[in-house]
Amino acid sequence: MQTALAANPVNYGTWNEFKTTFEKQFIPPATQMEAIAKMYDTSMGTKDFATWFLDWSTQARHTGVDETTKMWAFRRALPAALQNKLSVASS
What is the pLDDT of residues 21-60, one digit of tens each? Predict the structure, then answer.
């Protein structure tokens, strides 16, 4: 391992570079809570989001598919206006 590392030393960069990259991996809790609140305040047709989500999640559980498929279907089911609001809130 020492021979391989000596031949190709790892450059971890500066502490500030690491910190900036690390922080980009997480959504601040305040931003996340704001996005969730906006999502719950948005209507889904004639239902509020909480009612719509309860119906959706009940049906999703009955399908027996994996989490990745559920997330894909959930994102597809969201109206474009809500998707845009969530994108703006989380960026």
Answer: 887 777 777 877 776 677 666 667 788 878 888 887 887 7
Q: Is 48 helix (H, G, I), strand (E, B) or coil?
A: strand
Contact 83, 43 (CB under 8 A): no
Run of H or E residues at 11: none
> How many other CB atoms are found less than 10 A from the CB of residue 39?
17
Helix (H/G/I), strand (E/B), else coil: 26: coil
What predicted TM-score, i.e. pTM, was given to this entire model? 0.41
* Contact yes or no for 90/31 (Cβ under 8 A): yes
Phi, psi of 25 (to 5 degrees): -80, -10
Q: Where are the domains of the chain?
A: 27-90
